[in-house]
Inverse folding.
């Protein structure tokens, strides 16, 4: 199977190439694609050096699937071109996520809704993916009324320029800035742009995408998203109120038997998820489980994942695996 990676020179594109190299997909050729200024550059896939090609050359090569990680406006302009050529697009930008005509997929939760007619499939926002993966088994057992989430998001979610800003600030060297403030020795309660309601787009992505993925508009979600000087992954403090009461041991049992989730909840031995140790891993790590005693049926939890992996590349590759396994491409 031929797969195109559109945005192959970016941070997520690079992670896509690594995750594809580790996957069981029967890849015959990877087509690395980027904007005109990057054509001719080299990217690494397994032990090969791939030469970056143009969008036109990529479409002409007729891959079965194109995984996009090139930003919203590129996706709006180019994904339909690929789809018209019969290529199934899995898109990592926010361009199609809330469109009623497009699917927003986290394979563990709603891949069964995909059909061969879905030619542009949206990959959710990183901070949403890791939260819903951890909450889904609990949602199925207890129902969810309300989620209050605060995030601690890695600079890798912004891209290379942000990682450079952090490293430059640490080294005391000058360089381009991704943020309007210093990020080292700081945190910035501002991810993506502000909306008229006072929330950021990132916060509203968590609200709206959660409902769409879970297929339940009644779940109330409120979010505060914060950028922190961390590289390995995103962390989230989640307070979740269930419809029905739960048993903490049963919650532990459910999470420890959920595919793609790793329970790290042994505080006596200082075991809890941390972003430093999620880097390069495909799973979602969950810990610090404790009852919120201030109201009924409510649980506090801490959720960590590598945002470039399960929050982006791994989820996209899992969608591709599902499409192939179910003869949808
Ligand atoms: C971030 N959610 O971390 C974004 C990346 N998709 O900024």
């Amino acid at each position: 199977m031929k797969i195109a990676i559109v945005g192959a020179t970016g941070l997520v594109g690079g992670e896509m190439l690594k995750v594809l190299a580790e996957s069981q997909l029967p890849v015959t050729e990877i087509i690395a694609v980027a904007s005109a200024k990057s054509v001719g550059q080299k990217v690494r896939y397994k032990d090969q050096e791939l030469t970056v090609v143009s969008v036109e050359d990529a479409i002409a090569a007729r891959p079965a699937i194109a995984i996009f990680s090139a930003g919203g406006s590129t996706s709006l302009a180019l994904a339909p071109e690929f789809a018209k050529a019969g290529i199934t697009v899995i898109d990592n930008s926010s361009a199609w996520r809330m469109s009623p005509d497009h699917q927003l997929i986290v394979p563990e939760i709603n891949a069964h809704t995909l059909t061969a007619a879905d030619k542009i499939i949206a990959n959710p926002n990183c901070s949403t993916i890791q939260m819903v993966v951890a909450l889904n088994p609990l949602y199925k057992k207890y129902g969810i009324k309300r989620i209050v989430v605060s995030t601690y998001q890695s600079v890798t979610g912004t891209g290379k320029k942000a990682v450079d800003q952090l490293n430059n600030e640490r080294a005391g060297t000058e360089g381009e800035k991704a943020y309007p403030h210093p990020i080292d020795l700081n945190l910035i309660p501002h991810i993506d742009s502000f909306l008229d309601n006072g929330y950021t787009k990132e916060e509203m992505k968590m609200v709206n995408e959660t409902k769409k993925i879970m297929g339940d508009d009644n779940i109330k979600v409120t979010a505060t998203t914060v950028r922190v000087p961390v590289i390995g992954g995103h962390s989230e403090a989640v307070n979740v109120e269930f419809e029905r009461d739960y048993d903490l041991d049963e919650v532990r049992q459910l999470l420890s038997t959920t595919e793609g989730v790793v329970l790290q909840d042994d505080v006596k031995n200082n075991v809890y998820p941390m972003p430093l140790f999620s880097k390069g891993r495909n799973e979602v790590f969950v810990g610090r489980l404790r009852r919120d005693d201030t109201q009924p049926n409510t649980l506090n939890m801490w959720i960590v994942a590598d945002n470039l992996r399960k929050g982006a590349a791994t989820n996209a590759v899992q969608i591709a695996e599902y499409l192939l396994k179910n003869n949808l491409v």
Summary: The chain has two domains: 2-124+312-325, 127-307. The first helix runs from residue 11 to 22.
